[in-house]
Design brief:
single chain; alpha+beta; three-stranded antiparallel β-sheet; two-stranded antiparallel sheet; 4 helices
């Protein structure tokens, strides 16, 4: 979606931000270990990576336990309080 419809992906994240409670977590997978769209998709004027607090260590630890390994990236991010 980030390659073909980045505007729709930005719209999706905007909707998530509108509904997420402060301190909520987003857990998602990606085809990339460090997806470029986290730096290019902008929500409220800032790159998505700057709007969320990522827990890369926890995501890597839990990602190793993934028995399917369909996606290269496993991400855990917290919404600002």
């Amino acid at each position: 979606m980030s390659s073909y419809h980045p505007d729709l992906l930005a719209e999706e994240w905007e909707a998530i931000f509108e509904r997420a409670a402060p301190g909520a977590r987003a857990i998602f997978r990606s085809a990339h270990r460090r997806p470029p769209y986290l730096d290019t998709i902008r929500v409220a004027g800032r790159p998505l990576r700057e709007r969320l607090r990522f827990d890369d260590d926890l995501a890597e630890t839990l990602g190793r336990d993934d028995r399917v390994h369909t996606y290269a990236g496993f991400h855990i991010a917290e919404f600002p309080s």
